């Protein structure tokens, strides 16, 4: 049976300071998309508002721009997917077996309070599907509640971009909040690798999270294993 994956990307193009661009960390999408494509899974890309998803400039430079991301940049059909993403109201959660929240600092602004994203993640989870996120993508899970009013992440093992990694990346002072601490405040059992920036993925039932950009493949592989 063909599995169906819903990717979530950001519409945000800059930090609070408009001179500081940001957007989707491209490889966090491409690494997962490529692995799902190898399995012949059906895939669709959604964003909080629909339409274009800007790209994080830092992720498009050496050494962070890898072969997977370069291949997307050269593929007009793939890039078109990012210029015309679906809106939440165009998505039927019943059509998907898993949702995968991508990262990039941009998502810190538009993922947490998107009622559309929350509704879709909740319905996929409660239908027995998989909710997954990589790096800052876990910001999309901060305020997602279940039908009983409880937070999806409460009491669950999760990971995501750590505050230590924000500091080492030199952007901590520009962050709108500390995502690691916000996740802990919601009762999540936050975990991280001993070393920063290395692949690390956590599975708690049908909740799968990856710590940083290097964790996209590991996260996608865990999703595939569950499917």
What does this structure look like?
With 227 residues, the protein is α/β, with parallel strands linked by helices. It has 8 helices and 8 strands. The strands form 2 sheets. A 6-stranded mixed beta sheet has the order 2-1-3-4-8-7, with helices on both faces. A two-stranded parallel sheet has the order 5-6. It is globular. The model has no long low-confidence stretch (mean pLDDT 97).
List the helices and strands and how they pair.
Elements: E1 4-8, H1 26-38, E2 42-46, H2 67-74, H3 76-83, E3 98-101, H4 107-110, H5 115-126, E4 130-134, E5 157-158, H6 163-168, H7 179-185, E6 189-190, E7 201-204, E8 207-210, H8 216-226
Give a brief rundown of this model.
By secondary structure, the chain is of the alpha/beta class. The protein contains 8 helices and 8 strands; from the N terminus they run βαβααβααββααβββα. Strand 1 (4-8), helix 1 (26-38) and strand 2 (42-46) form a beta-alpha-beta unit.
Distance from N terminus to C terminus (CA atoms, Å) equals 10 Å
> In which range does the helix fraction lie?
25-40%
The backbone outline, from C-alpha atoms, is globular
Low-confidence stretches: none
Question: Could you tell me the number of beta strands?
Answer: 8
């Amino acid at each position: 049976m063909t599995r169906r994956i819903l990717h979530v990307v950001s519409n945000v193009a800059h930090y609070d300071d408009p001179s500081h661009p940001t957007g989707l960390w491209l490889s966090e999408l491409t690494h997962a998309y490529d692995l799902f494509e190898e399995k012949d899974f059906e895939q669709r890309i959604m964003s909080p508002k629909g339409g274009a998803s800007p790209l994080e400039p830092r992720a498009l430079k050496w050494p962070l721009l890898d072969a997977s991301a370069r291949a997307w940049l050269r593929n007009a059909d793939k890039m078109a997917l990012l210029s015309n993403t679906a809106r939440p109201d165009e998505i039927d959660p019943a059509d998907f077996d898993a949702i995968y929240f991508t990262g990039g600092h941009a998502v810190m602004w538009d993922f947490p309070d998107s009622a559309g994203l929350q509704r879709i993640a909740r319905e996929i989870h409660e239908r027995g599907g998989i909710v997954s996120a990589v790096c800052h993508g876990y910001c999309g899970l901060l305020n997602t509640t279940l039908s009983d009013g409880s937070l999806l992440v409460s009491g669950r093992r999760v990971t995501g971009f750590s505050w230590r990694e924000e500091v080492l990346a030199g952007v901590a002072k520009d962050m709108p909040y500390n995502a690691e601490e916000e996740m802990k405040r919601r009762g999540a059992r936050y975990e991280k690798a001993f070393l920063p920036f290395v692949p690390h993925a956590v599975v708690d039932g049908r909740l799968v999270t990856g710590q940083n950009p290097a964790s996209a493949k590991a996260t996608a592989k865990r999703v595939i294993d569950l499917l």
